[in-house]
Amino acid sequence: MIKQLRIKDYILIDELTANFDTGLNVITGETGAGKSILINAIDIAFAPRVSKDVIKHDKEKALIELVIENTKHDLTRLFEENGVDNNGSEIVLTKEITQNGVRSRVNGTLVNQEFIRQLKAYFLDIHSQHQTYAFMQPKYHINLLDNYAKESYGQKLEAYRERFKEYQHLQSKLETLKNASDMTENQIEFLKFQIDEIDSANIKSPSEDEELNSELEVLENAEKLKELTGSAYWAINGDDGSIMEALGKIKQNVSKAAGMDKNLEDLESNLLDAIEKLKDAGSELREYSQNLDNDTERLNEIQERLYLLDKLKHKYGGTLEAVLETFDKLSQELNSIEFSTQNIEELEAQIEKTRKELEHIASEISENRKNYAQVLSVLIQEKLEKLELPKARFEISVQSKELSSDGIDNVEFLISTNVSEDLKPLAKVASGGEISRVMLAIKSIFAQSDDINTVIFDEIDTGISGKASQSVADEIVELSKYHQIILITHQPIIASKANKHFYVRKSQSDETKVEVYVLTGENRIKALAELAGGEINEQSIEFAKSLISV
After folding, report:
1. Which value, to the nearest 10 degrees, does the dihedral of the CA atoms of residues 142, 145, 148, 150 take?
2. Antiparallel, parallel or unpaired: β 454-458 and 484-488
3. What is the pLDDT of residues 125-142, one digit of tens each?
4. Of residues 117, 141, 53, 186, the one with CA closest to residue 380
5. What is the pLDDT of residues 460-481, one digit of tens each?
6. Which residues of 425-454 are buried (b: 16+ CB within 10 A; e: fewer)?
7. Read out DSSP for 225-284?
């Protein structure tokens, strides 16, 4: 469960710490006070992307920190694989948002988003307006049903999906082979010609042309290079007036001077080093000049080689690296073409065998789905009756479809909230209050079947009042026996059931701030009275007291 939320420089909050309890944690406050900021902060702590707009004005960064208590899950392997310290039952998740990016840390170790995603799957389920929309879309219904029944056929479904990937790979391979087999003899001969043309060039490396161009430049300028380096050598080591002769005289003078003044010894040493280096340079220049030949044969050889390589580059990609890649691609294509008709027939037989296996497994999964759909339909309908929708009918429809990655079933949630109406897709439920209760019923059933520690509801009570509020409150209390619940509500009946009551207040002076308080005693009674009557008076106070005493 979430033990603590700490926020710093986030949106309108300078700094706050909220300590949550087990059971039901309720958040109330005036409209526009910023109640959703707390829930959004928890959501952002696990989010893959975060806008830098959440950083408080004039601040460099925002910080969100969650302290999570783990009493259900063995995360040893997950932590070891990601190099994260396992500190027992306590996990600290930190999200730092700066102008330049976002960093996530778990127990002080920098982690990637995939690790955070896996962590969230163990601990948190947030029900927001966006998730309500997702729950209502048919494409999500099959996943909800499968997740509910994962203990029954989850492993079989995973094995099916892996086998289906193999099936798709075989189909793709067959399509490639059939396309290749449709090529004409002339096309195949041209393909072989291209491969032979590149292969016969015997390209030594992707940079061969660059190396040859460097060598060509030297050979084309051999006479000039010989003249320049020879001239340089004679300037250094010539008989009369050379640099070495002049340096010899300088050396004699400096040596005499150093004999008279010890302070010149370092200078003398530096001069000797310079003379030796210049002597070595002269030797290298002489050797280079003497060994430099005007090799016309090698020059012609390089020019012919470069002409061949340029022709290949022009035809096959612009660079030698591209030419070599084209060679590999063409070779693979030819290998595919050379598969015989027998290979195609063998592959078709393998595909047919795999398809029959998939259909068999998919049929077994389908039977399981239909069984669990009936069970789940009854459970959700019973929940709807408890939530003051006694005339509601709920059914999970499982209809056949073509073989796909999730089997042979189309799954859709259907509902009717009035006796006179036929079952319709969940997305066509009209009333906001009905949607809220349907979502709570579904969430309650699914939450009781999973191991998620914390369930968050962002205004699940939209559009309800009276007896419906009481039934929703009772359902949330029941759910809080199995999970930590954090919810925002405008209903005093629901808020009165809280094990811990947070109140959010927005204040505006020189700047706007959001502050959060834990309500107890008289303060809590006043908050409930304000929720009930819009103002605090004797009647609303008495009503609030009656709610708490129930």
Report:
1. -60
2. parallel
3. 887 665 666 677 888 899
4. 141
5. 777 777 788 888 888 889 888 8
6. ebeebeeebbbbbbbbbbbbbbbeebebbb
7. HHHHHHHHHHHHH-SSS-HHHHHHHHHHHHHHHHHH-GGGHHHHHHHHHHHHHHHHHHHH
